[in-house]
Write a structure and sequence with these properties.
The structure holds two protein chains of two kinds. Chain A is of the alpha/beta class. Chain A has helices at 7-17, 32-40, 42-47, 57-69, 82-85, 87-96, 122-128, 138-155, 165-168, 196-208, 210-218, 241-249, 265-274, 287-296, 318-324, 351-365, 397-407, 419-435, 464-470, 488-499, 514-531; strands at 2-6, 20-25, 73-79, 102-108, 132-133, 159-164, 170-175, 225-226, 233-238, 254-258, 260-261, 277-281, 302-303, 370-372, 413-418, 440-445, 478-481, 505-509. The chains are: A alpha/beta, B alpha/beta. The interface between A and B is large, with 51 and 51 residues. The complex binds thiamine diphosphate (TPP) and iron/sulfur cluster (SF4).
C-alpha cells in the first residue's frame, strides 16, 4: 500500500514497522515531526512504544542506549546541533557497542533554514567509526530504518541515519510493509564499563569491525552504480545529491550513488580508474570530497565544493548541480524590484513581547547593559522593534555568558532564556552562577511550552521556582511576574531593582504561548462536544 | 506531462491546505508527486512557500529549478513577486490582490501592481478574501485561490480537485465541505 508521507513521517513509520520499542528525542527542526508522528500512531499507542520528549539530546541518547542494552530497538532523533549536545554519549556508545538495534537520527539543515550553523553530521559518524545511512528519497528513508536496525544488531554497533531538511520536510508516496514484532527483553551480558582497561579492548573490537562495515557498504543495495559508454565524467552522488544529478542528466551518466557509509572504497576506485574526472555531489560539507581524494590519490582529478565547481556553502539546488554538470542555464526573469524581506516575528499577543518591551526601557536607561540571549521564539527579540539581544550561540549559553561577562566586570549583565532551553542546558550554568553569587539578572521567559518547534511539552513546567531554590537561589531575589502590556512598567522596575543587587537574580515572567493556548482551547471544546 | 507549482504566502495563511488538496487529487489520479514544505522559523508571520511537483514520469528533485515553475499560486501579491526567477517562460501567476502588510518597508502598492501587470506572463489576481466573504465562507479565501488556479493546474481536472476537497474536509462535516466547494467554484468562475 502506498502512503503520502513527509520524509520525517517515513522515518517514523519505518522505525515502528521495524519493531521499535522507544523513540528518545528533543525537538528541533527539521527532526521534530518524527517523534510527533510516533506519538500519534495507532500501532505505537497499542504497543506502548516510548515517545515522550526528553529534556535534551544527551538524556535522549543515553536513555536509548539503555534500551538497547536491555535488548530492544531504540531510536534517537535530533537536529544536527543536538549531536554536539549528545556527542559524549554518542561517541562512547560506539565503544560500548549496542545490543538491541540502536539508530541515531540527525537532521541536518544546510542553508540554515532554521538553525545557527550548517554542520554536517556525517563527520560525527566518521568520528565515532559507525556506519551511516543517508537516504535520497522518502521510500529509502522508510526502507533504511529496517536495514539500519538490522545492521546495528548484526554489528552490535549504533548506526547513524543522516537526513537533510529537503528530505525531512518533503512529501512523496511511500510503499509500506507489514510491521515486525518488537524484540523481547534481553539485557546484554557483556560489560559496558568503559574503564581504560576495558575501553582499550572494546576500541580494538570497534576498529576490527571497520572491515565488516566497509563490506556492508560495498554490497549495500543503497549504493548503486550506473554506467554509460562515455567515460569523460564519473559522478559520486550522495543522499539527495543523487536526485539533482538525475534531474539534470537522467540515465545519461556514470554515477556511483552513495547512501551508506563508510565509503565503498573499491567502488570509488573502479569509477576513478574508468573515468577522466570525478565530480562529488553531496549536500552539506565536503566530507566525501576529501575522502575520495584520499582514496584515489592522483588517479583522477576530483571536483566538488572545495574546487568551486559547487558552492562552498548552502544546500544543493537543482540549479547549482546542473551548472556543475555543464548544463546551460535557462533564461529567467530578473528578481522583482518591489520586494521586501519578510522576516519571522513574535506573534501578536505573545508574552515575550511584553518582556522585551520592559527590557527595551532598561537598555535605553543603561547604555552599558548587555542582554545575553538564547535559542527559541524569544531570539526574535534581537530583531526590530526590540533589538534587545547581544548574543545567541547555543542552548543554555545566555546564563553562562552573562556570568563570564560579569566576572570580567560588565554591569549590568542580563540573560534571557526560555523555559525549555533552561531545563535543556541552563540549569547547570545557573548553579555555577549561584555558587559564585555572580552579579547577573536572569529572565526565564516561561510560556509553558517549547514554542519555537511547534509547542511540545516542556520538561520543567510547574517546577521552575523549585529548581531555582533547589540550586540554592536566595528566595528574596526570585520573582514570578505575568507578562502583559499593563504590567510592563512593573516588570521594568523589578529588573531595575535586581540589577542593583550584586548577586544572582531570577525573574520568571509566566504566561502561556498564545498558539498552544488556542490549541488547548480547541481540544477542550472538542472533548466537551464528544462528551455530549 | 508535468506541472511544477510554487505555493506561497505569509505564515498562517493556509497554503499547506492548498497543497494537501492538490496532493490528494494527484495521488487519487495516480500522478507522481513531490512536495517540499517549509516548517519552523518561517511560520511566525514570515514568508512561506512550498514546491509542489506533479508528473506522469518519475520526479527526482524535491525542488523546482530556476525558470521551471508552471504556476505560482500566492496568497499575497508581494509574495508572488518573490519567485519571479523561478517562473517559466509560459508560467502563470495566480494571486490574491490584497496586500498583507506586517513589515515597515512594504513596497508602494501602486508600483507593486504596476510591476505585476508589466510582466510578460499571464497574471490572474483577485480579492480572494472578499469573494470568500461574499460566498458566505470568510475562512475560505485559500479555496477561492485554488479555484482560480484550477484551470492552470491541468494535470488534475477541476472535478478531481472538487472531489479532493470533499475528501480532505470530510471529517469536518457536510456543511464545511459545501462551503469550501462553493468558495472553490467562485474562484473557478472568476478565473475564466
Ligand atoms: C541543541 C539544540 N537542540 C534543539 C534546538 C531546536 N530548538 C531551538 S529553540 C527550541 C525550543 C525553545 O523553547 P523555549 O526555550 O521554551 O522557548 P520558546 O520557543 O517557547 O519561546 C528548540 C527545541 C536547538 N536550536 N539546539
Ligand atoms: S509561538 Fe508562542 S512563544 Fe512563539 S512567538 Fe508565538 S506566542 Fe510567542
Amino acid at each position: 500500500m502506498k502512503q503520502l508521507l513527509l520524509g520525517d513521517e517515513a522515518i517514523a513509520l519505518g522505525a515502528i514497522h521495524a519493531g521499535l520499542s522507544g523513540v528518545y528525542a528533543y525537538p528541533g527542526t527539521p527532526s521534530t515531526e518524527i517523534t510527533e508522528f510516533i506519538q500519534g500512531n495507532a500501532i505505537a499507542k497499542e504497543r506502548g512504544i516510548h515517545s515522550r520528549w526528553c529534556t535534551n539530546e544527551k538524556t535522549a541518547m543515553e536513555a536509548a542506549l539503555g534500551m538497547s542494552y536491555a535488548g530492544k530497538r531504540a531510536l534517537v532523533c535530533m537536529k544536527h546541533v543536538g549531536m554536539n549536545v549528545c556527542a559524549d554519549a554518542f561517541v562512547n556508545s560506539a565503544i560500548t557497542g549496542a545490543n538491541g538495534g540502536l539508530v541515531v537520527l540527525a537532521a541536518d539543515d544546510p542553508s540554515m533554514h532554521s538553525s545557527q550553523n550548517e554542520q554536517d553530521s556525517r563527520f560525527y559518524g566518521k568520528f565515532a567509526l559507525v556506519p551511516i545511512f543517508e537516504p535520497s528519497t522518502q521510500q529509502e528513508a522508510y526502507d533504511m530504518m529496517s536495514a539500519a536496525f538490522d545492521l546495528s544488531e548484526e554489528l552490535k554497533e549504533p548506526v547513524l541515519l543522516r537526513v537533510v531538511t529537503r528530505l525531512a520536510h518533503s512529501r512523496a508516496a511511500v510503499e509500506v510493509k507489514e510491521p515486525k514484532a518488537e524484540n523481547a527483553l534481553n539485557p546484554s551480558s557483556d560489560q559496558w564499563v568503559l574503564l581504560p582497561g576495558i575501553a582499550k579492548k572494546k576500541y580494538a573490537v570497534l576498529l576490527e569491525k571497520q572491515t565488516a562495515m566497509v563490506e556492508a557498504s560495498e554490497k549495500s543495495v543503497f549504493n548503486k552504480v550506473e554506467s554509460i559508454a562515455d567515460k569523460k565524467l564519473g559522478i559520486i552522488a550522495c543522499g539527495i545529491g543523487y536526485n539533482y544529478v538525475k534531474e539534470s542528466v537522467g540515465d545519461n551518466a556514470n554515477i556511483l550513488k552513495v547512501s551508506q557509509y563508510p565509503l565503498p572504497a573499491e567502488k570509488i576506485m573502479t569509477l576513478a580508474k574508468e573515468c577522466d574526472e570525478i565530480l562529488v555531489v553531496e549536500d552539506g560539507q565536503p566530507v566525501v570530497e576529501e575522502d575520495v581524494r584520499r582514496i584515489i590519490g592522483d588517479i583522477a582529478p576530483v571536483k566538488g565544493r572545495l574546487t568551486g565547481d559547487l558552492p562552498r556553502m548552502g544546500e544543493l539546488t537543482p540549479d547549482c548541480v546542473a551548472k556543475a554538470l555543464g548544463k546551460e542555464m535557462p533564461v529567467i526573469l530578473d528578481p522583482a524590484k518591489n520586494l521586501a524581506a519578510r522576516p519571522p516575528q513574535l506573534c501578536q499577543g505573545c508574552g515575550h513581547r511584553d518582556v522585551y518591551a520592559a527590557l527595551r526601557e532598561i537598555i535605553e536607561e543603561y547604555p552599558d547593559a548587555r542582554v545575553f540571549g538564547d535559542i527559541g521564539c524569544y531570539t526574535l527579540g534581537a530583531l526590530p522593534p526590540f533589538k534587545a539581544l547581544s548574543s545567541c550561540v547555543d542552548m543554555g549559553a545566555s546564563i553562562t555568558m552573562a556570568k563570564g561577562a560579569a566576572d570580567a566586570g560588565l554591569r549590568p549583565a542580563l540573560a534571557v532564556i526560555g523555559d525549555s532551553t533552561f531545563t535543556h542546558s541552563g540549569m547547570t550554568g545557573l548553579l555555577d552562577a549561584i555558587n559564585e553569587n555572580s552579579a547577573i539578572t536572569v529572565i526565564i521567559s516561561d510560556n509553558l511550552t517549547t514554542g519555537m518547534t511547534g509547542g511540545q511539552d516542556s520538561a520543567g513546567t510547574n517546577k521552575f521556582e523549585a529548581i531555582c531554590l533547589g540550586l540554592g537561589m536566595d528566595p528574596a531575589h526570585l520573582h514570578v511576574v505575568t507578562p502583559l502590556p499593563k504590567n510592563i512598567p512593573a516588570i521594568a522596575q523589578l529588573i531595575r531593582d535586581e540589577i542593583a543587587y550584586e548577586g544572582v537574580s531570577v525573574i520568571i515572567p509566566r504566561r502561556e504561548c498564545i498558539q498552544t493556548a488556542a490549541r488547548h482551547a480547541r481540544e477542550a471544546k472538542k472533548a466537551k462536544e464528544a462528551q455530549k | 506531462m508535468k506541472k511544477d507549482i510554487i505555493l506561497c504566502g505569509v505564515g498562517g495563511q493556509g497554503i499547506l491546505s492548498i497543497a494537501t488538496i492538490i496532493g490528494e487529487a494527484a495521488t487519487k489520479a495516480g500522478i507522481n508527486l513531490k512536495q517540499a514544505e517549509v516548517h519552523g522559523m518561517s511560520q511566525r508571520g514570515g514568508d512561506v512557500q512550498s514546491n509542489l511537483r506533479l508528473s506522469t514520469d518519475t520526479i527526482y528533485s524535491d525542488l523546482i529549478a530556476l525558470g521551471g515553475a508552471d504556476v505560482v499560486i500566492s496568497m499575497e501579491p508581494m509574495e508572488s513577486l518573490r519567485y519571479l526567477p523561478y517562473l517559466s517562460k509560459d508560467g502563470v501567476i495566480v494571486t490574491s490582490n490584497k496586500p498583507f502588510v506586517n513589515i515597515p518597508n512594504y513596497p508602494e502598492e501602486e508600483a507593486l501592481f504596476a510591476e505585476l501587470d508589466s510582466l510578460p506572463n499571464t497574471v490572474v489576481k483577485l480579492d480572494i478574501e472578499q469573494v470568500a466573504k461574499d460566498a458566505g465562507n470568510a475562512r475560505g479565501a485559500n479555496m477561492v485561490l485554488l479555484g482560480m488556479a484550477a484551470p492552470y493546474i491541468e494535470i488534475v481536472t477541476i472535478e478531481q480537485l472538487r472531489n479532493a476537497i470533499a475528501t480532505v474536509f470530510a471529517r469536518k462535516g457536510e456543511a464545511i465541505v459545501e462551503a469550501n466547494l462553493k468558495a472553490f467554484d467562485e474562484g473557478v468562475k472568476a478565473s475564466k
